[in-house]
Amino acid sequence: MKFFTHLFSAAGISLLASQAIAQTDMPYKVLDTVQLMGSGGIDYVYADNDARRVYVPRGGNTFVFGLDDHKYIGCVTNIGGHGVAVDTASHHGFASGQKIGMFDTETMQKIKDIDVKGRPDGILREPFTGDIVILSHQAPSVTLIDPKDGTVAGTIDVGGAMEGAASDGAGKLYIDVEDEKKIAVVDLKTMKLVTKYDLGETSGEPAGLGFDAKNQILFAMGASPNVCVVVSAVDGKVLATLPIGSGTDAGGFNPATMEAFSSQRDGTLTIIKEKSPTEFEVTQNVKTKQGCKTCTLDTKNNHIVTICTERMPQPANTPAPTNAPAGGGGRQRGGPGNLDVLWVGR
């Protein structure tokens, strides 16, 4: 009996292992799409993996969806902009725009506006300092905000147009410098720029940034030309250059699957497998929707969430909108139409 028990147990483990391998080998596809009618432009999408929510600023408001059930939860009114970051401990959320909007994530009510300088674009919660980091296209390059009360904790001059960023969680912040085709290395302990890694003239302007913390590898997603430049975070050595879709504006890395990913305006999501610290391969270009240029990662379900808008048909000779919606909204502007939130997974 003991022999058969061990035999069946081993067989069960083997079956589970083979199922896990099979699951990993399955292609990605769009699993679900949620649509919400509205108006205004969009830019970034943010997954709050702790509270299991998805935030999408559109026009002058921010819309909230369930990360697991994909249902529309509600709207943070009078707070919009480019992107969102959330501090779990204080239950405070922040949206990046010309003014930084601060709100209560539990009540979804606005707390205040925070004045900052520069031209804010990207945003993230940085785990080493615990601050909310605002990335700007003009000086000051980086602004740190204390999430407890919304005060400005400091600024860092990097130079250039800041785009995507990734933290190593130990005091270093890596930032795409879009107009210089470089990755800036910032020391958060000294609040100074350490160096910039040159991606080379054949790289595109980097927007999204993935980071494999275990192997210290950066994945810079660039446009024109449309390539991912794989770089050593230790010394800036270029390890590989791989093709991606057209019009990337965001990307990331999933340590659970050892895959980098990049979302593109042409309606594709490129998946890059890190087969080893020196070997990388594009394994799939998932068909999403036209305009789905930014994305975020659901770390629990290994899903990638991406967004776009679909304008309602306009009557002939309708003039194009001349003003941006309140609170910013990035480069994808639009009149009334659907906001599409797509969940991509295996």
What is the strand tally?
Answer: 28
At CATH level 3, the topology is Methylamine Dehydrogenase, Chain H
User: CATH superfamily assignment?
Assistant: YVTN repeat-like/Quinoprotein amine dehydrogenase
Could you estimate the helical fraction of the residues in percent? under 10%
The 3D shape can be described as globular
Structural class: mainly beta
Strand content: over 45%
Number of domains: 1
What's the CATH first level?
Mainly Beta
What value does the Rg take, in angstroms?
A: 21 Å
What is the strand arrangement across the widest sheet?
1-28-27-26
Mean pLDDT: 90
The CATH architecture can be named as 7 Propeller
Report how far apart the termini are. Answer: 39 Å
Low-confidence stretches: 16-22, 321-332
Count of individual helical segments: 1
Biggest pleated-sheet summary: 4 strands, antiparallel
Give your account of this protein's structure.
With 346 residues, the chain is mainly β. It has one domain (28-345): 7 Propeller (Methylamine Dehydrogenase, Chain H). The chain is 7% helix and 51% strand. It contains 1 helix and 28 strands. The chain has one helix at 2-25; strands at 29-38, 46-48, 53-58, 61-66, 72-76, 84-87, 92-95, 99-104, 109-115, 120-125, 132-136, 142-145, 152-156, 162-167, 172-177, 182-187, 192-198, 205-212, 217-223, 227-232, 238-243, 248-254, 259-264, 268-276, 279-287, 294-298, 303-311, 337-345. The strands form 7 sheets. A 4-stranded antiparallel β-sheet has the order 1-28-27-26, with no helix packed on it. The protein starts with a helix and ends with a strand. Residues 16-22 and 321-332 have low confidence and may be disordered.
